[in-house]
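Journal club prep, shared notes

We agreed each person brings one worked example of a sequence with its structure written out as tokens. Mine is ABC transporter domain-containing protein. I'm keeping it raw so we can talk through how to read the token line rather than staring at a rendered picture. Sequence first:
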Amino acid sequence: MAEPAHGPASFCTQANALLRKNLTYQKRNIKTNIRLISFPFVLCLLLVLIQSLVNHELNKASNKCGCKCIDTNGDGQCEKVCGIQYSTVDQVGTCPILSPPEWPPLLQIPAPQYRAVKTDFTPFNDLPNDSCRRTGSCPATILFTGNNQSLGEILLGNMVPNSFTLNSSDVLVSLAQNVLGSASWPNLYNYLDPAFFSDQPVYEVQQQCTGNSSSSVTIQQSSLTFQQDVSCAQGLRSWRNSSLAVNDELYKGYRKGNQERQINEVVAGYDFLNTNSNNFNVSIWYNSTYKNDTGNAPISLVRVGRSVNLASNAYLQFLLGPATKMLFEFVKETPQPETEVRLDLSSLLGTLFFTWVIIQLFPVVLSALVYEKEQKLRIMMKMHGLGDGPYWLISYAYFLSISSIYMLCFVIFGSVIGLKFFTLNDYSIQFVFYFIYINLQISLAFLVAAFFSNVKTATVVGYICVFGSGLLGGFLFQFFVEDTSFPRGWIIVLELYPGFSLYRGLYEFAQYSFTGDYMGTHGMRWGDLSDSKNGMKDVLIIMVVEWLVVLFVAYYIDQVTSSVSGKSRMFLFERFQKKRTPSFRRPSLPRQGSKVFVQMEKPDVSQEREKVEQLLLEPSTDYAIVCDNLKKVYPGRDGNPDKFAVRGLSLALPPGECFGMLGPNGAGKTSFISMMIGLTKPTSGTAYVQGLDIQTHMDGIYTSMGVCPQHDLLWETLTGWEHLLFYGRLKNLKGSALTQAVEESLKSVNLFYGGVAEKQAGKYSGGMKRRLSVAISLIGDPKVVYMDEPSTGLDPASRNNLWKVVKHAKQDRAIILTTHSMEEAEVLCDRLGIFVDGSLQCIGNPKELKARYGGSYVFTMTTSSTYEEEVENMVQHLSPGAKRIYQISGTQKFELPKHEVKIADVFQAVENAKSRFTVHAWGLADTTLEDVFIKVARGAQAFNVLS
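Then the structure, token by token:
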């Protein structure tokens, strides 16, 4: 074997061991990683494919700027010429506009069925009855207020003309001199106002409409001719006593009422404040409901200019007379080049799809953490010296690295294939957002993993969160974000759920990239975070705070609920308590009921208890294990009494001794070992391992302990060599000493040759896994080793080889071994203890136990059934105290007390019996360890039943 390691492994050594193991494990799961990364790649490629199909449809000739074949030189040859003059209204948006045309500004006029009427929530007498909606004759209401009502009346009168006048020689100037409006939705681009080519009419606001109140207007723009009907809309001037009354009426009546969505809309509201002949001061209300489909920017502002112009003209006419006007003749776009119809699907669909792409990392991390918990791999690492600090540091950094690489590949691939979602938005903002979120997601996975113990359940719940977050975000949360009437405070509350925080951030990226692509500008920049309508700043703050809080809570819950330490840690953890020096000395406290219990014990058990009492009084001892009245009681449930698993066990083991624990199933052997290795907390009493108390210093005990559990705790994809390398590093083995120790360990359990060492543990047979578990428990020269049925499932040859390994290993360490094989117990164990119903019934070496509890011979004879009585009489003659312990079909077995019988007499009696009847078979055997075990176990169980 290799030279022992010097001292426990340091923090860095433990971290290095776990990191190397994780990297190797990751290399073994390369196919899983490829499948993981392929999901966003396939999704991005699908978006590109759909985008190309959409672009192909959008870039058809019918959607491009119109063209015509014209003979420009008179030579009979036509030449293709494109431009607005050859385009339809739908094609104009793609044409180059070198000199934008003039176009008259309009008011936003409510449709007749939505104009303000008298209702129960707007009970003003100057408003008409709702009967006008049936005839379409409701007036267009203009609300006004101020300090001077008479002046307000004059100004409103100047705004609304008495009639509609049209100069056919200069139609556009005529339209600017009148008050035109439309109920059609406005547009960001004003090359052609939608009112002039929509189904809704254009209205002329007049003080009073006559019987024939409609006319037709012909407008020529380039090669486009528009014939537009202009209808009269009576302008109703409604005075209110204050701006509060105007404000209340505007917002109280809008989109309220019955199921038919009764709507009370007005043209505008004017507050002339302190306006007089020397001062013009006015506030204007306008309807900002109309928005485009690409973001939050209201586009109704393009018609606000006309409302401002009306108020200015009214004041000028009040001062200088009705002939004075400041005409607002037209609105124009800036010149623009020829453009293509663009529709960025990655921005339209990316919020939902990319939410799924990123959140799918959550169940991946969660299942990995729960897998270690379910398979008890973390407990196994802990028992071999891995501390909580290195585990959390490396595990967190490991998942962070995987997540970062995943996100980096995702962003790079999306950028390479040209998704505007990535290319238009500032990469630094994307980096900060994704980095913060994946940290929050990993912290959340650590927290949630504490509440799961089954991988399948955790995975199902994880993927429910994935799809649920995306669907709820797309079909619920997004509507709240886009609804300006929804309280912003509740949006913040909803974003406390990490899935909605992610969705909001991706939503902001999508909005900015879509608008940037549509407008031909850039996406989100750092300066945009100061915009009150941009939610990215709030999301980043929420995620940073949640990340830190969730990480702390996850670590705290892990420490409090962890059963590996042997005790639950309270607030601020055990490590912040005052350090206590390990000592065998205990407080002198009376133990109630101890005297009665001791009187019922066997002399050998009492002697062991007295030895423990003496050792505890000494300042120090060289004993490796000292158990002091160790008890474990499981509380009763469903009306059942408490279950006593271990009843006051006292035991002392020096180095170099192998102690075997025998007992029937349920006797308490596994419960005892679980307490010793820190899986469960003792109900009372304690034990000292290398001078350290299992109640308070389990972390120190782990550095010098080896465990071969009852069930093999192995990573399926790691090889036997890699397992031993990992655990060897945890035991502070390095360099050539580590390599030599691993090689010798594998050779000792016959797992080195034939490529077995490089074979993954998942492909091992049951026996090979048991041998690997034994090798793991012995590597690194642990001072104390616990082996729970180590030879289970081994063939005879492998079992004998394993016995040699254990025999050699016990020379300088204490070993506690449980087994159901009496042969194994005799071969390996220096001392044995038989456990029944949680208590130690006897203790000693195999010879002592057989001498003490097996003082009889076992005589067996097989005859025909007619001679059974004669055989019984013969045995009773040989030994009056003989007991028949077995009888079936002529075969009988008897126990003969050794002090009553001589072996020569038995042989003589058998010879005499053969002369009288046929003896098929007979035998005389000394008591075996198995006989002792059965006798002690039955006696103890019978006593417990009677008591």
